[in-house]
Amino acid sequence: MSKKTIVIGVSSGIAAFKILDLIKLYKKQGHDVFVMMTKKASFMLSPGKVEELTGNITYMNLFDDAFSYEHILRKRKVDHIELAKKADIVVIAPATANSIAKLAHGIADDFMTTAVLATQAPVLVCPSMNDVMWHHPATQRNLTLLESYGYEVLTPEVGKLACGTDGIGRLPEMNVIAQATYEILERAQLLAGKKVIVTSGGTSEPIDDARVITNRSSGKMGLALAEMAYRYGADVTLIRSQNSVASHLSIKQIMFSTTEQLSNCLAEQLNNTDIIIHAAAVSDFTVKKAGEKLSSSIPHSMTLSPTEKIINGIKKINPEITLVGFKATSLSHSRVDGNLKILKQALPAGRQVQDDSKKLFKHACADYVIVNDISRPDIGFESDENEVYILDKKKIMKHIHKASKREVAKEILNTIFINRS
Q1: What share of the chain is helix, strand, coil (3-state, %, to 5)?
Q2: Spatial CB neighbours of 376, under 8 Å, sequence gap ≥ 6
Q3: What is the rounded CA–CA span in Å between residue 385 and residue 382?
C-alpha cells in the first residue's frame, strides 16, 4: 500500500493511552499520522508524546491564544478544514459514548468533531465504554446513525473494563484497528480508474402545471450504490430525480424530472463510461400535458402512452459499457420463501420474473439484472432496507437477504465487480 495520511481522533476514554501503540503500527508501515484530541483526552494521553511519535503537531484547540480571524481571511486556510481535506481515513479511537453522540448528531464544538464533520474521507469508529453505556438504546441508535452516514463501526471487545466489571466495551486491540484501517484504505482502490454512472429516483411525467404521474422510488438504493462505488475509488456520476435523496459526498450529481430529461442526460454522459447501474424507476407511461391547470370541479380522462425503454438504448450509445439493470417485480411469497435453494428452483419457474429478466438481457443486452420485490412494505421503494437477487445471463448469482440498502449495495458491488474470481 502506498503512503497514506491517517488522522486519529482521540476522545477521553481510559483506553486513550493505547493509541501510542496504534501510531507506532501506522508509522511502521510508512504512513503519515496526524492526531487530534479532545481536551479531556490529554489527561490520558500526552500531546507531547504524540507529537514525538508522529512528527506532527497535535490538534486540540479550535482557537489558540494567537488566533486571528484577519490571518484566516488572508490565508484562506483553517486548520480543521485542512486536516479534514488531507485525510485518507479518519480513525476515532477510543470513541466514547459522548463523542459518538456528538458525531451522530452533527455537534461540532471542538477540533475533533468539527474536523470529522468536514471530512469526506472514510471514518472508522472504535467505541470504548462501560457495557451498560454500550447497550443503552441512545448509544445503539447513535451508532446506527453513524453507519447510515457510511461510517464503519468496530464492535468493542468483551473483557475486563476500566470500571472493574466484565462485559462488552473494551477498545479493540491496536492490531485489529490497524487491520480494519488498511482494509478500508485498500477497498478504496477496488474500482480506482473506473467511471461509473448510477441512476436513481423516479421520473415524473406532467399531467398539467401542477400534477404529475410518478412512482414511489425514493432513490435510496441508487444513492447507496453511488456512495459505495465512490468508497471503492470509482469516479462516480449520480444521475438522480429532483425529489430523490442527495449525496453529501464529492460525487457529481445531475438531476432530472421526466423520462425525456433522463434519456437526454444519459446520451450526454454514457460515452467514456465503464459501468452504469441503472437503478432509476422510469415511468412506464406518459400523458399529453394539458395547456393549463385542470379544473378539479369536473371529471377528466387521460390516455396513457408508453414511454421509451431507456435501458434498451444504453448499449447502442456505448456498446462496451457494463450494464447493471434493476427489475422491480412482485414475487409470490408462496413460491419464494428466502431460501436460496428454493429460490433457484422457483425463480426460473416464475414466469413473470423469468420473462422480465430475459427482456432486459435480450433487448437491453444487460450484463446483470438486480431483481427486487416491491410487493413487500418492509423492503424496496421508500424503505431503508432491501432484499435482492443478482442474475447474470446464465444463472442466479446471489440472493442478498434483507439488510440495509448500504449493505445491499456493498454486496452487489462485491458480487459483480470484486469477487468474481
Answers
A1: 40, 25, 40
A2: 387
A3: 9
pTM of the model: 0.82
Q: Kindly give the residue spans of alpha helices, DSSP state H, lying in 62-158.
A: 69-75, 79-86, 97-104, 111-118, 131-135, 137-148
DSSP for 115-143, written as a single string: HHHH--S-EEEEE---HHHHHSHHHHHHH
DSSP assignment of 201-245, as one string? SB--EESSSS-EE-----SHHHHHHHHHHHHTT-EEEEEEETTSP
SS3 162: coil
Give me the domains of the chain, ranges plus CATH numbers: 5-187 (3.40.50.1950), 195-418 (3.40.50.10300)
Q: What is the pLDDT along the chain (421 residues), one digit of tens a residue?
A: 789 999 999 999 999 999 999 999 999 999 999 999 999 999 999 999 999 999 999 999 887 777 777 777 777 778 889 999 999 999 999 999 999 999 999 999 999 999 999 999 999 999 999 999 999 999 999 999 998 888 999 999 898 887 778 889 899 999 999 999 999 999 989 999 999 999 999 999 999 999 999 988 999 999 999 999 999 999 999 999 999 989 988 899 999 999 999 999 999 999 999 999 999 999 989 998 988 899 999 999 988 999 989 999 999 999 999 999 998 887 654 344 444 444 444 444 345 555 667 778 988 999 999 998 877 778 878 788 999 999 998 888 899 999 999 999 999 999 999 876 4
Give first-to-last CA distance, the chain, whole Å: 22
Query: Exactly one of 126, 163, 265, 365 is catalytic; which is it?
Result: 163
> Would residue 163 show up in a list of annotated catalytic residues for this protein?
yes
Q: State the CB neighbour count (10 A cutoff) for residue 375.
A: 12
Grid cell of 336 as nine digits = 419464494
Using CA atoms, how far residue 208 sits from 191, 204, 229, 289, 290, in Å, is 43, 12, 38, 5, 5
